Amino acid sequence: QLQLVESGGGLVQAGGSLRLSCAASGVTTSNYAMGWFRQAPGKEREFVAAISWSGSRLSYADSVKGRFTISRANAKNMVHLQMNSLKPEDTAVYYCAGKPTISFSGLYYNPIDYGYWGQGTQVTVSS
Question: Residues near 47 by Cβ (< 8 Å), separated by ≥ 6?
């Protein structure tokens, strides 16, 4: 079992930055592909970013490309999402997710691919 706990959310003005962290426990993150998703009120959960087991492959939603950076530190069982140039439309609850995998380079974009989720952290960007 993998337990995930997000932190780092908060209120920030447009143009500002936040760094979300996801701490894993139970088992290491080293054999899990990881992803970040977000869900705004009244909307479906959407893909934000993904990182492969090895950390060698990354992927981003078009809406955050060039502004957000996903990273992982397997030795510390941590995954991060650095968010820069935040916009009001980035306001949402952000979730960290993990998928067991034997693929060093696999990336996963669909929420149903992930079996483990954190409780979420609220990000609010004011205009």
Answer: 35, 37, 61, 109, 110, 111
Could you tell me if 51 and 36 are in contact, meaning their C-beta atoms sit under 8 angstroms apart?
A: no
Find where tokens 């998928």 sit. 99
Cβ atoms < 10 Å from Cβ of 17: 11
Q: How far is CA 86 from CA 8, 16, 82, 97, in A?
A: 14, 6, 10, 22
Integer Cα distance of 102 and 34 in angstroms: 13
pLDDT tens, position by position, 55-89 = 999 999 999 999 999 999 988 889 999 999 999 99
The single-letter code of the amino acid at 106 is G
